[in-house]
C-alpha cells in the first residue's frame, strides 16, 4: 500500500480492516489516481460483487424444505473454474458491444457459455436469515429468508486483467521490480480507454451473472422478490475527492459514500452485514468487502481439517453443500472485529446469517 501511494499518479490511498496481501494493490486497498487506471488495483476478477435477494419464502423452509432450496441452487448455477451452461442463459448484456477490446471480442462466446455461473475460490451462493433492524428499501424490520451470492466476471474478466496488466508493465519498464504489478495505463491513451471500456463491460457482465442466478433460483422456488441489494468491490470509479476528479480503485473494498447501501459478508459460518455508508473522506468513501483472510490457501490446506471445520459449521447451524478446505471459517478474520474497526465508515442496518452454503468443491470434500 505504501508503494502504491508513492506512484507518481497516486493522490491518496486507504487500507480497509479486512486487508491482506495481493498482487499490486492489497486486497482491501483503495487508491485514488489522476488520469490513470491500474489493472492490478482493480483486480483479476473484475467487478467481483455481492448480490442479496430477499424472498417471500417462509423461514421454516430452511429446515422443512431444505432439499428444495438445495435443488434450486444446484439446478440454477454452476461452480468451478471452467463451469458453463450447456443450454446457455439469455441476457441483454450479450447484445452489448463486445468489440470494445480485442480481449472481450475474442472471449465473447466463452463469456456467454459462463453466463449465470459462480466460479471457484471464495465465490458462493447461499440461503440464510436476514434480520432487518431498521426499515431498508421498503422492507420493514423483521426476519426474512434471503439469497446471497458472491462472484464476478469469470474467465473473461481474468483474461482482460491479464492482457492489460502485462501491457501496462511494458509501458512502465522503469518501475522497480517490487512495484511492477502497480503499472498503470493513462486514461487518455488508446490502451487506457480500451481497458476502461472492457472493465465497464465486465461490470455489466458480472451484474448479469448475479441477476440470472437470483432470477432463476427465485423462479425455481416460485418465490416473489421483496428486495434486491448489490454492489461491486473490484472496480474503478471516476469520483470527486479533495476538490478534483480522480480514479478511485477499490480492490476488495465496498463503496461507502454517504447513504450508499452495500453488503459485507463474513464467512460461511459467521454473519454478514447490510450497511449504509457514512461517506468518510479518509477512506475515500470505502469500507471492507468482507472479513478478510488471516491464513493463506496453502497454509489452510496444510494445517486445517474437515473434522474441525465441520464442528464449527455444526455449532453455527450451517449446512455446507461443498467447498474447499481453504475456504472454511478458520481462514477468515473475526467479522465482528472488522465491523467494529470501521464503525466510522459504515452503519450496519441488517445482519445476514448463513444457513445453507455452496461453494466450488476442491481437493478434499466435506464430511457428512
Describe it for me?
The chain is an alpha+beta fold. It has one domain (2-359): tRNA-splicing ligase RtcB (Alpha-Beta Complex), CATH 3.90.1860.10. Helix content is 30%, strand content 29%. It has helices at 2-5, 39-42, 61-64, 66-76, 102-114, 154-171, 190-221, 297-303, 306-316, 335-341, and strands at residues 10-20, 27-33, 36-37, 49-55, 124-132, 142-151, 185-186, 225-232, 234-241, 244-251, 253-255, 261-264, 272-277, 286-288, 319-322, 346-359. Strands 4, 5, 6, 8, 12, 13, 15 and 16 form an eight-stranded mixed sheet that branches. Strand 15, helix 10 (335-341) and strand 16 (346-359) form a beta-alpha-beta unit. The longest helix is centred in the middle third of the chain and has 32 residues, at 190-221.
Helix content: 25-40%
Order of helical and strand elements = HEEEHEHHHEEHEHEEEEEEEHHEHE
Provide the CATH architecture. Alpha-Beta Complex
The number of strands is 16
Low-confidence stretches: 364-368
CA distance, first residue to last residue: 42 Å
Total domain units = 1
Strand residues, percent: 25-35%
Number of helices: 10
Broad shape: globular
In round numbers, the mean pLDDT is 95
Q: Which structural class do the helices and strands define?
A: alpha+beta
Amino acid at each position: 500500500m505504501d508503494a502504491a501511494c508513492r506512484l507518481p499518479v497516486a493522490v491518496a490511498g486507504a487500507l480497509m480492516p479486512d486487508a491482506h496481501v495481493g498482487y499490486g494493490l492489497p486486497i482491501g486497498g483503495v487508491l485514488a489516481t489522476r488520469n490513470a487506471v491500474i489493472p492490478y488495483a482493480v483486480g483479476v476478477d473484475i467487478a467481483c460483487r455481492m448480490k442479496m435477494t430477499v424472498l417471500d419464502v417462509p423461514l421454516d423452509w430452511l429446515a422443512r424444505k431444505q432439499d428444495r432450496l438445495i435443488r434450486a441452487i444446484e439446478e440454477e448455477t454452476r461452480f468451478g473454474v471452467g463451469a458453463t451452461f450447456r443450454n446457455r442463459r439469455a441476457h441483454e448484456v450479450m447484445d452489448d458491444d463486445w468489440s470494445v477490446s480485442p480481449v472481450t471480442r475474442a472471449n465473447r462466446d466463452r463469456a456467454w457459455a459462463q453466463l449465470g455461473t459462480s466460479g471457484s475460490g471464495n465465490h458462493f451462493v447461499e440461503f440464510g436469515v436476514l434480520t432487518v433492524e431498521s426499515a431498508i428499501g421498503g422492507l420493514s424490520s423483521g426476519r426474512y429468508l434471503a439469497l446471497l451470492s458472491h462472484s464476478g466476471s469469470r474467465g473473461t474478466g481474468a483474461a482482460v486483467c491479464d492482457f492489460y496488466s502485462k501491457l501496462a508493465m511494458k509501458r512502465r519498464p522503469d518501475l522497480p521490480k517490487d512495484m511492477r504489478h502497480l503499472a498503470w495505463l493513462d486514461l487518455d491513451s488508446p490502451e487506457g480507454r480500451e481497458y476502461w471500456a472492457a472493465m465497464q463491460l465486465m461490470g455489466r457482465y458480472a451484474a448479469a451473472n448475479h441477476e440470472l442466478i437470483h432470477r432463476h433460483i427465485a423462479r425455481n422456488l416460485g418465490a416473489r422478490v421483496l428486495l434486491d441489494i448489490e454492489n461491486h468491490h473490484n472496480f474503478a470509479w471516476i469520483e470527486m475527492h479533495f476538490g478534483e476528479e480522480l480514479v478511485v480503485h477499490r480492490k476488495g473494498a465496498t463503496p461507502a459514500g454517504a447513504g450508499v447501501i452495500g453488503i459485507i459478508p463474513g464467512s460461511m459460518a459467521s454473519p454478514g452485514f447490510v450497511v449504509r455508508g457514512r461517506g468518510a473522506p479518509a477512506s475515500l468513501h470505502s469500507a471492507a468487502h468482507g472479513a478478510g483472510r488471516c491464513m493463506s490457501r496453502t497454509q489452510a490446506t496444510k494445517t486445517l481439517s474437515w473434522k474441525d471445520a465441520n464442528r464449527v459449521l455444526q455449532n453455527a447451524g450451517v449446512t455446507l453443500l461443498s467447498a474447499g478446505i481453504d475456504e472454511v471459517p478458520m481462514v477468515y478474520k473475526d467479522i465482528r472485529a472488522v465491523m467494529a474497526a470501521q464503525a466510522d465508515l459504515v452503519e450496519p442496518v441488517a445482519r445476514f446469517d448463513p444457513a445453507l452454503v455452496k461453494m466450488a468443491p476442491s481437493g478434499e470434500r466435506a464430511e457428512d
